[in-house]
Amino acid sequence: MEIEKLAKQLKDRTPVILGSERFSKFAILLPLVEINEEIHVLFEVRSLKMRRQPGEVCFPGGRIDPGDRDEEHTAIRETSEELGISEDSITDISPLDYMISFGQIIYPYAGIIKTPSQIVPNPAEVEEVFTVPLSFLKEVKPETYHVNFKVEPEENFPFDLIVGGENYNWQTRKMKEVFYYFEDKVIWGLTARILKHFLEIICETPSENN
């Protein structure tokens, strides 16, 4: 029966995020390094020559290329290219929760850079790198602010086709932004959200010494 064919067609498919085939996809690495026997998180400052977000603090990462094996490989490749280190020096890669933001899917990972002394940032992409002790980040409380989004339908929007017309009660949207401060650096936006998520994970996981 045709209805059984239809049911089988639906049953055998693997669900994805609706419309994700049109999303831009990126992978990011939250790099951990050991300095003087203490764990630090490494950050980049984007080159002032960059077209997008010059001078902002970020993690290494970039767009997923068709030739990349998977999202994890993208994070490793981009980190290697931006920091001038071999891919083999990036180890212990662990996935964090992926994020959807304004038509983008971001796949974050945490990993260890075994040879931080060999880092030579690519000046075309990276203005400088700096590290923050993990102990500091675990203790500090970030500042939180909210960004409100206003709905503005285009001029020819068919209000006559919806209940309520021009007085339709649109749902308001709000996004939380967190800010971390370290010396003269400001960490916010996507980078701060990934950092906060990472800190929540490791602070919820009991250490072996407990």
Automatic annotation (TrEMBL):
<dbReference type="InterPro" id="IPR015797">
    <property type="entry name" value="NUDIX_hydrolase-like_dom_sf"/>
</dbReference>
<dbReference type="InterPro" id="IPR045121">
    <property type="entry name" value="CoAse"/>
</dbReference>
<dbReference type="Pfam" id="PF00293">
    <property type="entry name" value="NUDIX"/>
</dbReference>
<dbReference type="GO" id="GO:0010945">
    <property type="term" value="F:coenzyme A diphosphatase activity"/>
</dbReference>
<keyword id="KW-0378">Hydrolase</keyword>
<dbReference type="GO" id="GO:0046872">
    <property type="term" value="F:metal ion binding"/>
</dbReference>
<feature type="domain" description="Nudix hydrolase">
    <location>
        <begin position="21"/>
        <end position="156"/>
    </location>
</feature>
<protein>
    <submittedName>
        <fullName>NUDIX domain-containing protein</fullName>
    </submittedName>
</protein>
<dbReference type="InterPro" id="IPR000086">
    <property type="entry name" value="NUDIX_hydrolase_dom"/>
</dbReference>
<keyword id="KW-0479">Metal-binding</keyword>
<keyword id="KW-0460">Magnesium</keyword>
<keyword id="KW-0464">Manganese</keyword>
